[in-house]
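Hi support team,

I've been running sequence recovery on a batch of backbones for a student project. Most finish fine, but this one hangs at about 90% for roughly twenty minutes before it completes. I'm not sure whether the input is malformed or the queue is just slow. I've pasted the structure tokens below so you can try to reproduce it. Let me know if you need the job ID as well.

Thanks,
M.K.
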């Protein structure tokens, strides 16, 4: 590759990495072209992409983004699944495709912003529920103590009302 081509590829990778919400690094050796294309199609449907990249260019692109600590994850022949939408969507599409198609590919790690991810982190992200469900669970957890407090504070008034109603019935029965 000529210097100009390398510079263009580094700039392109820098832009891709900057836009990506998550990157999942995989070993692509031993995969058939149709398997790679199938994974690429699934990722593109969810707003992602799957590319075979050259490590040295990827490391230089990360250095330009001031993420030089990421160079440790770019070792050996790799391909990268980049996600631009919800973080868990890309991880879920990747793990679901690998499981359903039974291809022999594993995540070797990845990145999410400035954080380096392990294979376990990626599997955990894939099992997370969608963002609206997580938000609903958090809000539900915040509302529950408030409802309990309101019930406890209203109990003495309900009890007093019950006593007064019973006394009214008792007095009506004496007449």
């Amino acid at each position: 590759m000529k210097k100009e081509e390398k510079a263009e590829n580094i700039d392109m990778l820098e832009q891709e990495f900057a836009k990506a919400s998550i990157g999942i690094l995989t070993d692509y050796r031993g995969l058939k072209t149709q398997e790679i294309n199938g994974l690429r199609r699934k990722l593109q449907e969810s707003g992602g992409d799957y590319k075979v990249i050259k490590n040295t260019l990827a490391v230089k692109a990360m250095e330009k983004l001031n993420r030089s600590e990421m160079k440790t994850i770019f070792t050996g022949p790799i391909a990268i699944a980049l996600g631009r939408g919800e973080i868990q969507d890309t991880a879920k599409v990747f793990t679901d495709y690998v499981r359903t198609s039974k291809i022999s590919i594993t995540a070797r790690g990845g990145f999410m912003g400035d954080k380096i991810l392990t294979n376990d982190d990626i599997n955990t992200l894939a099992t997370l529920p969608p963002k609206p469900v997580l938000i609903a669970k958090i809000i539900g957890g915040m509302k529950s103590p408030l409802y309990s407090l309101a019930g406890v504070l209203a109990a003495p008034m309900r009890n007093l009302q019950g006593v007064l109603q019973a006394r009214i019935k008792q007095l009506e029965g004496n007449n």
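--
Follow-up from support: It reproduced on our side and the slowdown came from queue contention, not your input. The chain has a mean pLDDT of 85. No action needed from you.
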